[in-house]
Amino acid sequence: MATATETPRLFDTTRSAKNKHRAVWNVVAIVLALIWAFPIYWMINSALMPADRLRDTPPLLAPIHPSVHAFQQIFHDSLFWRSLGFSAAVTFLAVAVSLLAAVLGSVALSRFSFVGRRAVLVGVLVVQMIPAEALFISQYRMLDGWGMLGSVPGLSLLYVGLIVPFTVWMLKGFVDGVPVELEEAAMMDGCSRFGAFFRVTVPLLGPGLVATGVFGFLVAWNEFTLAFVILASGDRLTLPVWLKTFSSNLQETDWAGVMAGSTLVAVPVLIVFILVQNAMTKGMVAGAVKG
Length: 291
Known about the structure:
By secondary structure, the protein is mainly alpha-helical. The protein has helices at residues 2-48, 69-75, 78-111, 117-129, 136-145, 152-177, 180-188, 193-204, 206-222, 225-230, 239-248, 255-290.
């Protein structure tokens, strides 16, 4: 009888200890989440703060009389809309070309054995380690010689070089996870090699394509340095470069305008995450399991 009563008590004690540990970790997670989210909150708070209250000491943690004047100012800025269109075009082209190149490259490295295959894999990784600043002069002269400075294809071409190395490595893991026997079975049913690949393998790569596409989108959408060097024209800017120009055109920095612009630049990123979060989660989990 004594053993029967002690076992539930021991079970209750263990469960109580687990609940305490879980509560502690929940508090730690909430604190970390608040620290991570505070810059976003401060960006929106500063965008809604009246300009004459931004320099108050101590700073106001919430706008007493919120104002949307900074957002209205940006909505009436024609350069913002041109930069938005330019950023969208560059990002879309860079991501589309990068995904196509990454799919073909990852399939070649995963499905075919050829001389120098390992060297190519290592080379793709090493290329990503080269500092971008070391390539500025050669990239600028290359685009200048081709007459592509300040153009959507020119800047997209440089972004493709930034995105492809990582996406090849990432997609190769997904391609390795698709059994080659599925393609062989489709070929036995009459499909060509390309038909088996596009009808069998590509649909199974959906979550991986979404995850790598989001990575490429973030790189191209937020990239500043290359765009700042390559875009010499004043009316063809990406949004990150437009933000700098917006702040430097004034005699003193309009922080409310800068924060409002930063908020609007982040909105498309938020929309993309909302649209693809389920597929992206599946892709990241699948990649973690398959290695």
